[in-house]
What does this fold into?
Amino acid sequence: MKARLNASRDRIVAAALGIMAEQGYAGCSVAAVAERAGMATGSVYRHFPTKADLFAEVFRIASQREVDAVARAAALEATMADRIAAVIETFAGRAWKSPRLAYALLAEPVDPAVDAERLVFRRAYAKVIAGHVAEGVANGEVPAQNPELTATALVGALGEAMVGPLAAGVAGPDTIPGLITFAHRALGVST
Amino acid sequence: MKARLNASRDRIVAAALGIMAEQGYAGCSVAAVAERAGMATGSVYRHFPTKADLFAEVFRIASQREVDAVARAAALEATMADRIAAVIETFAGRAWKSPRLAYALLAEPVDPAVDAERLVFRRAYAKVIAGHVAEGVANGEVPAQNPELTATALVGALGEAMVGPLAAGVAGPDTIPGLITFAHRALGVST
DNA sequence: ACAAGAAGTGAACCAGGATTCAAACCTTGA
DNA sequence: TCAAGGTTTGAATCCTGGTTCACTTCTTGT
It folds into this structure.
């Protein structure tokens, strides 16, 4: 039955996500994933041709979840300044709640094939931000600029500012407001 | 003789740097390094206990070189705005001249032990920038802010904006001026 | 109920590259 | 010149973890 088959596949992905959130990519041997999914190592290969394929999908799903959350939070706000603030708060807040997962998605060493998925992830964030920036430029909230470049730079800034604290396990309480101020200034929001 | 011994060690480091610049960390098997240094594989272990130790040192040296170049360029300028511009131009210009090396230093997957060295590298950049920011705050060139946070965010922004082009092999001609504008605005330089 | 085929099993296999080590080779000092 | 101590060699070894595959177990259709 196909239901069973799909269920197995889902169990594998869920197990991989679970281990990523607890121990990062480092803990994700195929054997560990299979065990957590309640099946034999070899069975994983009934559903995914290689480990890299499996984790490309896992990264895609996890990333999409993050990007969606950020996009959704931003959509609730009225001004561009508030949208950007919402992006940062959501991004950083979620990262802070699942630090191991956030580290895995952002910076942990992984297979090159999986790494490629990370570029997509970052570009997706950049795209969301770029949309808001373009809008802000169009209606005069911020000065003319290349929304792509600004967005890419902001994604880098957010990531870098979070990786340190995530690795260290501590974040200054003013990190998030500080980043919001930084972003607003970088965009040229008139204050 | 000790001179010979030191010379061997230097040859190893130089060979590793050379291969990194040409083929990235991926090409840096111990055997390849040894061959380029003109010695047997095993001899490398006369000078470094493990491969990770060797590359920690290699990363440290290469990073120091980069950070020094940036710091030196910045020191030549008079205003904080110009110093920051010099940082960005030097960083991006050098990365663009040795893209494979820059990619290896910035983003290529490496041993966790070597990865740790990367954090030091980024923090060193941040420290240089933070110094200029603090100075700018002190003499009123820019508004009050946390220089550490601003600097970290800028390092992330620069890295992110360069990794894409480095991987793709193309950079828009307005990337560097765009980044300078971004940085100046983010700092709050009065224009 | 039974045959055909799919799904699951997990121990064995394999690849790639770091690391070791016993033998061969210098260099130095008497 | 010779012996002792240190250095160099590079093929053999080891390790890790992804991948395979011959076999068993289940599901489905007649």
Remarks:
- Chain B has a mean pLDDT of 93.
- Residues 4-5, 8, 31, 39-43, 46 of chain B lie near DNA strand D (CB under 10 Å from a C1').
- Residues 112-138 of chain B form the longest helix (27 residues).
